[in-house]
Amino acid sequence: MFVSPVVEDGRVVQHFASFLDFSHRVVQERELRESKETLDWRVATRTRRLQEVNARLQEEVERRQRTEATLRDALAQGQEDIRYRDFLIREVNYRTKNALQLAVSLLSVQARQIDDPACRSTLESTMTCPCDWWTRGPTSLASSAPRPDRLMA
Prior knowledge:
Layout: E1 2-8, E2 11-18, H1 23-113, H2 117-127, H3 138-144, H4 148-151
Antiparallel strand pairs: 1-2
Helix pairs in contact: 1-2
């Protein structure tokens, strides 16, 4: 309520009173407060959901990093196994060549000591394999090597 004096000729003749209805403003403030509380609740709910999703994503990222590390280790181990296998193949090939060379040398010694020309010819033909398969690399060794069942014949 507002009270204002009405002055005429320097004297207060009456008072004027007025009322201001601010109930509408109270309603607006209440609605604003409720809207703010609703918005705060929605923000909190959404934030909580986002934090949960973020936590799940972090777990997934960590799981994938562990899997990637495991796969990287397995790949490194596989490459190491391949290098070792290649080394073993070269070693077996080398030893096989040496063993065959030793056999050829022994056949040569035996052929020089035999007087029979037919036996000598057979031994010499055994020493000179037309395909020379023992001098090739390990990749062609398997494809051109004589079969064991034919060696006995």
